[in-house]
Amino acid sequence: MNLSLRQDIVARLISDFEAIERGPYLQRVRCPECGKREAYINAEAPWMLKCGRENNCGAQLHVKALFPDLFRSWSERYSPKGNEKPTSTTPVADGYLRDGRGFELSRIQGWYTQESYWKPEIGGTATVRFPLPGGAYWERLLDNPERFGKQKANFVGRYKGQWWCPPALTLGDLVAAEEVWVVEGIFDAIALYHHGIAAVSAMSCGNYPDEALNALSDAAHKAGTCRPALVWALDNNRAGHNATHKHVKRARAAGWECHAAQIPSGGHDWNDAHQRSELTEKHQETYRYHGDLLLAPTAMAKALLMYKRREQREFWFEFKRQLWWWKLDMDAFDRALRADGLDGEDQRQIDPALRDAALEQSGSVKRICTCYPTALYYQANAVTDESWYYYRVEFPDGRPPSKNTFSGGQLASASEYKKRLLGVAPGAVWTGTSQQLDNLLQDQIGNIKTVETIDFIGYSKEHGAYVFGDLAVAGGKVVPINSEDFFELGPRRQLKTLSQSVSLSINADRKAFSTEWTRQLLGAFGTKGVVALGYWLGSLLAEQIRAEMGSFPFLEIVGEAGAGKSTLIEFLWKLCGRRDYEGFDPSKATMPARSRNFAQVSNLPVVLIESDREQEGGAKQKQFDW
Description:
This protein has 626 residues and is of the alpha+beta class. The chain folds into 7 domains: 3-71, Alpha-Beta Complex (DNA Primase, Chain A), CATH 3.90.580; 88-157, no CATH class; 159-295, Dna Topoisomerase Vi A Subunit, Chain: A, domain 2 (3-Layer(aba) Sandwich), CATH 3.40.1360.10; 312-363, no CATH class; 372-448; 451-510, no CATH class; 514-623, no CATH class. 35% of the residues lie in helices and 21% in strands. The strands form 6 sheets. A 6-stranded mixed β-sheet has the order 19-18-17-20-26-25. The chain has a 5-stranded antiparallel β-sheet with strand order 1-2-3-4-5. A hairpin with a 4-residue loop joins β21 and β22. It is globular, with a radius of gyration of 31 Å. The model has no long low-confidence stretch (mean pLDDT 90).
């Protein structure tokens, strides 16, 4: 590990997570997941932080996830300083591949070059470049890649129908390997290569490498041996699943023997597994099992795979985004064994084919839901003492999933669950029993994560973050909402707003910010307009100002009819992303309506519009007194 990187990581572990240096380990580290000071990490090579509470937490986190800012600008850390003589022609790329990806440089020396990439209005970055077949190349952007938006890499040239193969492996080596793993990324292929697996990169899940497969087939034919089997090990997401099914069908039609491998935990790829030391033979067996589940042709076939691994007589499972129930009739299983003359035999000694046939005869699968509901997290409102479980419901026909909440009462019985499911997911029907629902809930919500909620938009002083509809701002950084509809502000800091009352359309591109409107404001409203703008800007920091100064003032804007009061206020609202709104008249609103208007925003102004003073009022006008 780079010495300066190690020092920075250790310093952050001590300052942010209260680590204590004791011998070869940093100990008593506060676990980012459970909050207990029982985590530890190697002091010499602090890569993986592990929680010592194996049964209650057992979290394993790579330091890249804890301190992403330390792994952003590789040129700044690894470029030669001053009169230093570079020890390599690729110092930045070397540092990135060794410390950012966990690779042994001696194994991959000469496979890559260090280059640069430039984009107008954004700037340049160092890259690590890998050549592809046919003169094309792929390069990864290294320095602060978030500047380039969603672009993390750069492809130049055509790679369709081809794959990237580790230069140390020839076609003959792939044939002799008996199995070739097809993964998405080049770094994934390198990670598997480190563990003795012949792996190639298809560069994207949508690329079927037919030309490369034809070349491999020809090499096997010339060698007079069988073609190797293909293990499709694409990413564990919807795109990866669909591509795996599509490619396996096409490859099998061309005569290839196909299997699959999948990392069950979401969000991890093969490079992550390499860095987490999770590519042992035992881990590979688990990944192959999940790949077999993915390729199971029928619900019965999938249930049999799961039963042989789990030995449970009853369980629920997902197949083609629907819920199914497996049940084994032991009496029928014993009868099937007796019919084959295997009565009294130890099941482990029985021919697997005969045992599978007996299980298929005695086991039954039944669909219990026409969709696949998944509990994502628990959310609670401490103010109103209400709570919900946030669900994602996926459909077998490929429709976008529905997301909505289920209350505790709606999960308490099968009938209420069925009603709620029909209400939030079109065409979703639950036909299972209450006992089957209880089993499903025990597995899905037994150790579910909790997301804190607020019932307003704007600034939450408890969390030190501004929260709006689809973005939040915390620690000076813009945080987009994730795929599960909450904001990840840091370890053990998940937050979302329940408010749907105020909708702000906010621009997150700082480069699109313009100040041309300030001249127009001054020209139209003069110094009084500037005073109003100053107050408006202050209201966006009202909580911070109150913490320092004790209070924040009110502003009264008065003027004759047609002077432009409403125009000014509507323009100031537009600066905050709210169109065609001025405020509300408290004299004409009920007490609940006034309370709602005051409570729905924080660190945003509340505008009260003056009512007609001359009008003799009724009861409502007397409810509010200026």
